Amino acid sequence: MSQRTIREVRAYTVRGKGADYHDQEGAHWIDDHIATPMAVYPEYRQSRRSFGLDVLGTLVVEVEADDGTVGFAVTTAGEIGAWIVEKHLARFLEGRAVTDLERIWDQMYRSTLFYGRRGVVLNVISGVDLALYDLLGRLRQEPVYALLGGPVRDELQFYATGARPDRAKELGFLGGKMPLHHAPGEGVEGFRKNLDALADMRGRVGEDFWLMLDCWMSLDVDYATRFVHAAAEHGLKWLEEALIPDDYWGYAQLKRQAPPGVLISTGEHEATRWGFRQLLETGVDIIQPDVNWCGGITELIKISALADAHGALVVPHGSSVYSYHFVVTRTNSPFAEFLMMHETAEEVVPMFSPLLLGEPVPVDGRLRVPETPGFGVELNPEVPRERPYTH
Predict the structure, then answer these.
(1) Where is the Mandelate racemase/muconate lactonizing enzyme C-terminal domain (predicted)?
(2) Domain extents for the chain?
(3) Is 337 annotated as a binding residue?
(4) Which of 134, 252, 330, 384 is the most exposed place for a label (fewest CB within 10 A)?
(5) What is the DSSP string of 345-367?
């Protein structure tokens, strides 16, 4: 491949089902009375959409090389993200070599420090980085995992996140992760309901199937400690994201106080190697960076190396092909998450459908990552998208 340069960067927004998987219509398990930091306010307990979890929408980043080849990626950043790409970050890409991944990432990060560091800005940087990997893979006619050193296993094995771990077991997944439904503000009754739900599901799936709980930043240290001890009696595999992301001290305390045999995991809403360094120093057992949010693959490589040095597992937050290509290349990522985006979590459907075409899904809880160039997916031309800004 001759040296290719970047001709143009474009940013689009999409509403409805896409990378922003909370942007749903109608009833869906992912929005059914799930514990959140906002659950301290009773009026926001029933629905996460009620406090605006779906407001961003999907960002699509396209990067076109000088020969007309286009790479793309999707993430959660919406119109805010499109503005950042078009009005700020494009200057660090256009005219540069496609292979300048490290320099481009570093300049995007350093140039946005005064208003970025976390959150939507890192979502945007992640999207651009992933689009560059997709473009490089297409130009070299190689899957992204080949650019990362190649696979260390023949296939991926998955656990399923959703409301029906019993159904996940029937579908061949190695475990099931349920959302925690009741936050501390719902008192003793909510605590009991959370425990009863776990006990009921344990009765349905038997003793050997993994069961996990996703707390989505909703608990405090005292509640999480009491609950993890009670949940251990029902074979809880891990307690996930119990505290707000910035409470590193709380995570250290929770890890110290947790019963033997129950893992403490978190990191879905953490970003960059610096954030994960702080998190890993708390002693948590599993970190769960989202490659669409933490800084892209360029940064996830560094985060994973840090975790390996700390003896922690890296199990990325469910992000479809964007995490599959990474997980298959790392020995400290022994399994992957599959987010059950079926309305009742009873069927396996592509996570980013209908936005992506060719998105692979596990069969019997397993998946061989396709050898298609780039990330191996295409944008569905029938899904409307808008380019709200240009540069």
Answers:
(1) 165-261
(2) 6-20+56-142, 147-372
(3) yes
(4) 384
(5) S-S---TTTTTEES----BTTEE
For the chain, how big is the Rg over CA atoms in Å? 20
**Does domain 147-372 correspond to CATH entry 3.20.20.120?**
yes
CATH for 6-20+56-142? Answer: 3.30.390.10
387 known member of a binding site: no
Mean pLDDT of each 10-residue bin along the chain, 391 residues long: 90 87 84 96 96 94 98 97 98 98 98 98 98 98 98 98 98 98 98 98 97 98 98 98 98 98 98 98 98 98 98 97 98 98 95 95 98 98 96 96
For residues 362 and 156, give the distance between their C-alpha atoms in angstroms, rounded to a whole number: 8
Determine whether the annotation assigns residue 229 to a binding site: no
303 φ/ψ angles, rounded to the nearest 5 degrees:
-60, -45
Judge whether 317 counts as a catalytic residue. Answer: yes
Which residue out of 229, 317, 325, 342 is catalytically annotated?
A: 317
Rounded to 10 degrees, the C-alpha dihedral 361/364/366/372 comes to -40
Whether 214 has a binding-site annotation, put simply, is yes
pTM for the model: 0.97
